[in-house]
Amino acid sequence: MLEEKIRSFNGRKAKILGHENTFKSAVLLPLIVIDDKYLVLFEKRALSMNRQPGEICFPGGAKEPTDDYSEYTAIRESSEELGIPANYFEVIAPLDIMVSSFNSIIIPYLAIIKDISQISINQAEVDKILLIPLDFFLENEPEIHYIKTTAQAPDDFPFHLIPHGRDYPFRAGCVPQYFYSWKGEIIWGLTASILHHFIDLLKKA
């Protein structure tokens, strides 16, 4: 019986450990072509939003319980926010999955929006859209700063169960933060990290 259970692992697909306890979302990194030039579409979140009001982000959003957590989530949410049909989005490929320090997992997808002439933003979520030439990001490096993270154990942590007790040498982390400035608007945080990842892949292609 135990051997059968062990053998049943054969062919199992790896997931991210602890994923079931995270906030899951999917976004599009959307490109559009105007006059043979590629531009990146961003949203500026409405000031009435509970999460990150007024910040620059990619379209997309949270996984619903019925989603299979794929590009479907990113397209559905983007369609709702931008007011254009789902078939206007052409997904090219997934980018690398991001696991943030804030208990969330984001899957970004590189996509092309075939037609933006019909965009009608959902003003409850989106203040405006920004169209920034892709060349700008290829030609300008972001400003980089770092956030240090350390383990802070609560008072009731069982230090007596680990080597060195309260003197245990917990590792410190260092998280890079990228900042792109465009005509007075700042792109930073998870959005800038996904963007920087894409630009790095594009330069290496």
Report on this model:
By secondary structure, this protein is an alpha+beta fold. The chain has helices spanning 2-7, 71-82, 134-139, 189-204; strands spanning 23-34, 37-45, 56-57, 60-62, 89-94, 98-99, 104-113, 126-133, 143-149, 173-182, 185-187. Strand 1 and strand 2 form a beta hairpin. The chain is globular and about 65 Å long.
Q: What's the average pLDDT?
A: 93
- Radius of gyration computed on alpha carbons: 20 Å
Structural class: alpha+beta
Strand content: 35-45%
Q: Helix amount, in percent? A: 10-25%
Principal-axes geometry comes out as globular
Low-confidence stretches: none
Count of β-strands: 11
Total helical segments: 4
The secondary-structure element order is: HEEEEHEEEEHEEEH
Query: How would a textbook summarize the main sheet?
Result: 8 strands, mixed
N-to-C CA distance: 49 Å
How is the topology of this model organized?
Elements: H1 2-7, E1 23-34, E2 37-45, E3 56-57, E4 60-62, H2 71-82, E5 89-94, E6 98-99, E7 104-113, E8 126-133, H3 134-139, E9 143-149, E10 173-182, E11 185-187, H4 189-204
Parallel strand pairs: 1-7
Antiparallel strand pairs: 1-2, 1-4, 2-3, 2-8, 5-7, 6-7, 9-10, 10-11
Task: For this entry, give a set of tags.
3-stranded antiparallel sheet, 4 helices, alpha+beta, 8-stranded mixed sheet, globular, 205 residues, 11 strands
